[in-house]
Amino acid sequence: MTSQDIPPFPLPNVDQQAWRESFERMKKGCESVPSADPTKLYRAFEKMSAGDIDFDEMPLPTGNGRVISVPLQILDKCHVCYKTANLRVCNSCASVIYCSRDCQKFDWRFHKKLCCESSLAQNPSKRSFRLAKTQQINLKSFFPFIAYMFDTLRRMAPTQEQDSAPIPYPFLDSVFQNLGRRLGRGLEFVLHPALTHRILKAPTPGARKATSSESNVHHTVVLGDKWDLRIKGIPDYKPLSTWWKGHTAMAGMEMFLRIVRESNTFEVTIATSLVLLSELYSTYMSKSVDESGNTTWEPRERFRLEYGQSPVSDFGICRGRIEGKANRVQTWTYYQPKTNSRTTILNPDNHYWLYFRTIKGEELILDCCTFPFGMEGCVDASPCLQQLASMFRDYGSARTPAYFYAPNRPEECPNSHSLIEVARFSVMHNKQLYGALGWELFGGRDPEQHAIVKAFMTKVQGEPCTIEQEDRVRDYRCYGAILLGQVLTGKHWKEWPKPTFHSRDDCFDPRDPKGSVFTKGSTEDPTCNAKLNGMLGLFSDVYGIN
Q1: Residue 532 above 50 pLDDT?
Q2: For the MYND-type domain, which residue ranges apply (predicted)?
Q3: ∠ Cα 353 355 358 (to 5°)
Q4: Phi and psi for 138 in degrees, rounded to 5?
Q5: Which of 155, 177, 309, 543 maximizes the CB count within 10 A of its CB?
């Protein structure tokens, strides 16, 4: 297929020149795979636009494409001599403990087959082994990217109503435009009420300092008539200048960011944790099945999270509540006078965050969802975006909400608030999830796999999850896996600098707006000369994998 043969993009209102350039880049990637057929890429888009297939129905590798393999949880004794002093884990797999180099060398003849990744030959009865190269990823520099995943996934919530049509817009809109997700029945059910109505009255977003007698504050936002923001991109000042009555576009953008960060925090937390497990801790990846039905396995680099030089032995989700300290905890209710209805999106007594624990027992907290409660601590995640494809470089990354600290170190804990844990749910060591994450990239289409994820969501939430929540988690996982895949393929985390923290997101402060900070790291940042990396595997059928 030549550039002249590329057909127009099968969805309306798309920059055709940008589409052709994007297709050319994808075509170049396909050319590195002998069995690839780039014409299938267009046919896949065409079917999706017609509603014939959905994004999670794309052709994928058959069978269990990968196996989840996680490190040990505790350092107890040497695997060889059973000593309990001077212990360390195998650098490659973090699954065996030794007390000395001598013990490790003695055990190598037995351990190497477990420590190496296996590649199934055409004859399934024969196995060939080669060393598994393990890449250590330090949370100290990697956590801003995790925070960015939270922030960019939240923006995939719908920002506008779309005209009703017999065929809903496919998830393709979310992946390539970040402006919405698959919209099915009942648009009102999935849209934030403030994004579909004009704001008549609301307090200014921002932190509220606490006094000795005050800890919580409740805000009410009064909504008016139906209002379609029609956000075409972020930032898009024109619709925001009339959305919030009596306020400027700058104030509107500040409110818009607060509202978007209030959306779907539970689903984003679930999806991000599942993506970390499936993409970092999978040891095998299936590539094809021959005519006899035999699977050819392709070795894959291992990845391991660590903190300092201590491997992460467990991570998961905490559920609990927020208590204010220096800042008051804010809750927001959206009131519609015409229907006399009130909607409160978030509850400070039902909050979610991530925990990590190292093999030495050190606990770490990553909280990316307290921004809408008035806790405005941010990290500059823009360096994490500079080598990503433009479709992944979102605005506002220089001020990404995040608190990352060790609870047993008071000097690291935020003074704005504290988190009170009620329950925790391991993701790394939930063996039921391993089977649900066996499919490459997009998650399984097997009903049993969906049921496993649904059961986990219900357990964490403490009540049954809805179909809409399941859909959102599946969508977020799809996009998050592609995003993280770019970083892993290019090993970009090795080049990231020490994180920079900020006390608040001040990009749209009317007194001192910082437009260049908001666009830092995005598609409009001239210093970002991104290249398309890590897209191999996005569409398995396109690459001749299945």
Answers
A1: no
A2: 78-115
A3: 170
A4: -85, 125
A5: 543
